[in-house]
Amino acid sequence: MNRIIGITLLLISMAGLTSCVSGDGRKGKPVIKSSNQGTGALGCEEDLFLLSSGDTCVTECPEGTFLASETELAEALAEETEQNIEISQNSTGVCLDDKITRPTDEVFITKDFCACKSGVPDIINNCESFCSSQSVETPTLFVNTTLGPNIELNEELGTLDRWCNAEISDGLTGPACFLEVYDGNGTTDLSVEIASGANSFKVNISSLALNKTYVATLKEKGSGSEAKSKSFQIRRIEYSTGDDNDEAPLKIMPISQYTCLTRAGTQVDAGNLYENAARLHYYFASNNNPPSLPPGDPFLFCHDVNRYGNDDSPLYDRLELIPQHMALWDLSDVRFADQNSDSRSDINETIQKRLLDDYGINKTINIFGLLTWPNMPNIDGSTPNLGYYMVPWIDPVSGRAFCPNQTNYNSDDKLFNILKEVIGVSTEGMYMAVKEAELLSNADNEPVLAPTDIMIVRENLLKKIWFYYENNQHYVPDEITATQKTIHFYWPADVNNPYIRKSTQKIYTIRRPTELNVGQDQTGIPTTVSPPDKRFGCMPALD
Q1: DSSP 100
Q2: Second label for 128, Cα 20 to 30 Å away, from 77, 321, 378, 402?
Q3: At what angle do helices 70-77 and 82-89 cross, to 10 degrees?
Q4: pTM to 2 decimals?
Q5: pLDDT tier at 140, thresholds 50, 70, 90
Q6: Do 51 and 84 meet the contact criterion of CB atoms below 8 Å apart?
């Protein structure tokens, strides 16, 4: 081999060529043969073989390539020539071109999505104005998007249309997007319509059920890449103009959850040093976005600082936003007003009067209360109103708590018969949960407790992820143990593997409002009844 190298150097010198470029390549070496011993071993010896070149050795993989693992190399060599296979086998390693893939999680859904039918809204998302200008006769979802840099700045892509439909150099063919909708039990793919060069799409959603919440995700499935957008939630409704407001069911308002991150660290001339952080959760009605945070505090933020920078803006989506985390009854429904000043919503009196007039039952009704909750950190003044919810109910026989559904509405109980007309939809329980204690560091690098984080979680989601823990094991509660054990869950929720804790998850524990110092001024319903499973109310069910 020394003789071979010597001959090579001599020939290159005679040709006056530059033969060695560190990191970029050495042309010619892989195809050296021994004139004295017949055909010798092809290879880069102690260097790396740049496979796509076919004849170049490098000392390190250049930009746009990577050092292949054994598995990756075996897959790459399966379709290579015998010469390239031999060169690879006689080299220290092989550099493969970076894999070209369709970017995923870089299609962002703007919050102004609407669905319309015959000029009126078909989903809950404040779509009256938008839908008044749409003439579609079938329920149609209209969605705008923004794109991440790996799509927007990509010469092969650049728009949502091309992200969905353009073939790229990934070896896959026939790309096409579908809207995948998940109802809690299974998924359905809906065809999407995207205009040429557009960043928006529309979908016929007539096959989706009314009054049922779906998690929707735009996915490229035609080529099999499974690249996807960020997910969002939709819920079809039977729209009411409000002209028959006294007869229609109470209006429902989606409630969003988002995250603020409080960080600990120090400020130095070279920049900020962040050592640890804790999440805090906040809530707001979908028609009343919270204010943005003022600039100047790098240790507290509620938006995506990696995408938008440190300074907040009212135009930015909130961090880790869940648009329809739960639902309450709408503050704007006039039936919740106290027009006769008797310190309770008029809807309570309406139900009480109907119970007496229709069935001769004289009973005081005070079942709806106003929930107030912080919508951002460090609120000055009064806490914002979030919406109305209903008291939890107690079964007189079993003593267990429940929230009324269609079975209750269709029973012989006259109050529930009236509530069927007033509410119309099934309801689910509301629970408060507190996060496990976390430590942050103060300016002197001393450990301090992170602020307490209290979440509101709805019953139908909770029951997919809850557990109690005994003898180093997770147990799934039933109706009895849910009232006898301390109930926990991991958040962010993973309904597929709820009992395997991930590095990003924290432990939350179900507590009564009184145990969390959440008083009647926030929950709005005076009651001495404390349900054994610690639910504090009922709200419109999302699934």
Answers
A1: P
A2: 321
A3: 160
A4: 0.62
A5: very high
A6: yes
